[in-house]
Amino acid sequence: MFKLKSNLSACSLALAAVFATAPAHAQVSGDVIRIGFITDLSGLYADIDGPAGAEAIRMAVADAGGNVAGKKVEVLVADHQNKPDVAAAKAREWFDTQGVDMLVGGTNSGTNLAMAKVAQEKKRLFISIGAATSALTNEQCSPYTVHYAYDTTALAKGTGNAVVKAGGKTWFFLTADYAFGTQLQTDTTKVVEAAGGKVLGSVRHPLSASDFSSFLLQAQQSKAQILGLANAGGDTINSVKAANEFGITKTMKLAGLLMFINDVHSLGLKATQGMYLTDSWYWNRDAETRAWSRKFFEKFKRMPSSIQAGDYSATLQYLAAVKATGSDDSDKVLAQMKKTKINDVYAKGGWIRDDGTMVHDMYLMQVKSPDKSTEPWDYYNIVETFKGEAAWTTKSETKCATWK
Amino acid sequence: MQVFLSQLMLGLVNGSFYAMLSLGLAVIFGLLGIVNFAHGALYMLGAYAAYIGLERFGINYWVALVVAPIVIGALGVVIERLFLRHLYKIDPIYGLLLTFGLALIAEGVLRYSFGVSGQTYEKPELLSGATDLGFMVLPDYRAWVVVASLVVCLGTWFLIERTRLGATLRAGTENPALVQAFGINVPLMVTLTYAGGAGLAALAGVLAAPVIQVTPLMGSSLIIIVFAVVVIGGMGSILGSIITGLALGLVEGLTKVFYPEASSIVVFVIMAIVLMVRPAGLFGKEA
Known about the structure:
The structure holds two protein chains of two kinds.
Chain A: H1 8-18, E1 32-39, H2 50-63, E2 67-68, E3 71-79, H3 84-98, E4 102-105, H4 109-122, E5 125-128, E6 145-147, H5 152-165, E7 170-176, H6 179-194, E8 198-205, H7 213-221, E9 226-230, H8 233-245, H9 248-251, E10 253-256, H10 261-267, H11 269-272, E11 276-279, H12 287-300, H13 306-325, H14 330-339, E12 342-343, E13 348-352, E14 358-359, E15 362-367, E16 380-386
Parallel strand pairs in A: 1-3, 1-4, 4-5, 5-6, 7-8, 7-9, 9-10
Antiparallel strand pairs in A: 2-3, 11-15, 12-13, 13-14, 15-16
Chain B: H1 2-32, H2 39-57, H3 61-82, H4 92-114, E1 130-132, E2 137-139, H5 140-162, H6 164-174, H7 176-181, H8 186-208, H9 220-233, H10 238-258, H11 266-277
Antiparallel strand pairs in B: 1-2
């Protein structure tokens, strides 16, 4: 059983703990490259990431050949139940006892901020995919955090600018009453005002509110042209539903500040047509994304969200960097990742900035009307592409100490 | 003033759901002594029964209003016969744990098959319009919810408190041996009571389906509030749960105008105050 380095795949798991500190010749700790993935597997964000996100990571491992630099790649998955303390405890346990080399953070900003702190303390690479908060690369940036897919700044710049440009000058916000919602509202307000728009008011609703009609009536009484939805998931879905039911969509236009394709799918095109939204990726963007998405579809009977595509891409890029350096040391791998342009099914010409942001194009999309949709999941027209750094926090705006 | 009236109206709509759900809970607790934590799950299953009925079998809304409660009521029979039956004589905590477990299983199964984003259930054609009340535009469907729920609530109250059948039911739980001696099948009566409570939850689920997204988690987000309603009204008090349900809907609606951030906790603040001042609840009998 303890014959070193022979038949690694069979006993690597048992050996990992024993040899975690032994010098291995390929500089891969524990002779196995271990990727941890902590996300919401069962709660309100489980559809946009969740078990299918874990599968996207496994798809990337398989596409990288299952072995990298001669070492086996393993994926650990855990549910954080949307609780930051659960996420942080799991991350700590994995770094300390399981020899996890790189941690992927799924949905929920609160849990990701907590995991980023643990990763920084343990000096391991943390790639956040599903979190929206721009604090990860701003006030709370860390040399070990990469924020990969999107953030509240990019969402605000995308949708905020486009809607004001299209004539939506006066805004009212319906905001989820926690860190993410208020941050998204603040970021969007800045963008709207800079573009010459005006914010007439806002109402904060509790997370997972059971009924939105009374908040929506308050919005309607503001006489604003645009209703900005600074919430997510089920809250966004129920807001849109109630807005349609109470005829608010006749007098106000809705702007979903964070909407995923799963939300649109769930609501249907009839209720969402004409809405603007900003996202980092769309499965129906080009031939390459379509081909990859169809593979994903075969497994899950639904098209991948931008987050799931991000899970795949981040894993692929990480493994490529491990291969190039022949090491799973976080400092070396991250330096390699920062040197390399990211070109895959998710991003074209992306790069990782010193604040941790993975800079890539963002897309402003408009939801199609039912008669324009030619197949299931064909939901968006790409209205505008924000190239390169256009969507992201600028150097003059940032409060991140490592990017000054 | 307009704002005030329209928010009261919306509060009444939400209060109707609270009333219907807490009514079922109160009936089950009052007559069986079971703290039915599966109530939220039964409500969710009712909504899914309507959804699946429409998608797979083409059963329309009006038929679903009748069929879904019957199907879920039958499920209630199974739950009572298989599980709850064995728990009447022991500590109520076991009933609570068991029903909570059942709720988690039901949620898990539906989450596995349908995901968490939920499904959209279209409103019936007949009620898809809206009426201008002067101070607000009220969707017809919401008005229908208020009417339907009031009729069901008062009907249930009347059945249990004012009819011979209801009197037998209450007697059966008070002194089963004596009632059995009169030749009445008490175990069957208890089974049907639980089925009835389950059916009421399912009916509320069907009524809610067109208004909110049908998701596996829709029950768990409501059940805690409904429990608070029952505690405030007085455990087991039927009229109490109806009145409290409607009243709390109104209070919550007004909170949404004056201090929206507090709207999700106002019910619990009231519960805390009531428990301090009147531990048996507003309509409960002092023990």
